[in-house]
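hey so u asked for the seq, here:
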Amino acid sequence: MRMFVLTARRVPDVPSPLLVEVSERLRALGHEVEHGTPEQMLVDAVGITPGHDLYLLKSHTELALSVTAALAAQGARILNPYDACAAAQDKLLANRRLHAAGVPVPLTFVTAYYDRVAECLDGTPKIVKPLRGHRGAGVEVVKGDADLVGRSEPAGPLIVQDLVEGPGEDLKVYVVGDRVWAVRKPFSPTSFSVPGRPVPVTREVEDIALRAAAATGLGLLGLDVIEGTDGPVVVDTNYFPGYKGCVGVAGPMAAYIHDYATGAVELTLPPMPLSAQPAVIGRERVSVA
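ran it, structure tokens below
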């Protein structure tokens, strides 16, 4: 089968060792594998048509999602499926799906104005980040009204979450099918490019990861987890992450991609479950039906 991997430009701009090894393993299984970065292409918006048997969406950029949407609309086979990737990129939707599946997530609000962010401040720090952000871009801690004074309005919608106090390191959890890996590393604006330190996966974390995978319809999945005083809390979700620091992931990943390509594995984004509670608008719960 012919496969095409849609990649993002990496920091530093060198090929991913994991993707190189996975591609070699797929070629050994008889597949043709090509790589390309949408931002470096000149894409014909009218003429774009599927030319490969499987597309692997490894980029989180808006252009990569648009190209994938055009391919998926014409019946192209995508891993992860386009609708599941688009839902995971939307942090409001991802949070809602995880909560409904029993995955622990922080209290979360969405707004496009800083004065509404101020309404969420209750004496405890908040995490504020872009609704469709990735790679940790734009994530900040807001501790009080003084942190919002003098700001121009944000460029786009914001997620506002309770800050979960943890041990000072994020637990990065990675899923391939029904296999789970974990690494620990300190958060920083560039931590996405740094390998973590492999750690054992507890049964609790494994259960959370597999619940999240089922809820999001993703077979290749990453979770950012804070190990708080009340247990692990998922603060972010990513489709097809980098798996940096994971040991022994290339073989299972290549096998999973092969099984998906040949139809032995299927992925479906489950229907959005109905909420058992009224919607949260401002700090009050009201019905929007």
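Residues 166-246 form a domain with the D-amino Acid Aminotransferase; Chain A, domain 1 fold (CATH 3.30.470.20). DSSP finds seven helices and 15 strands in the chain.
lmk if thats what u needed
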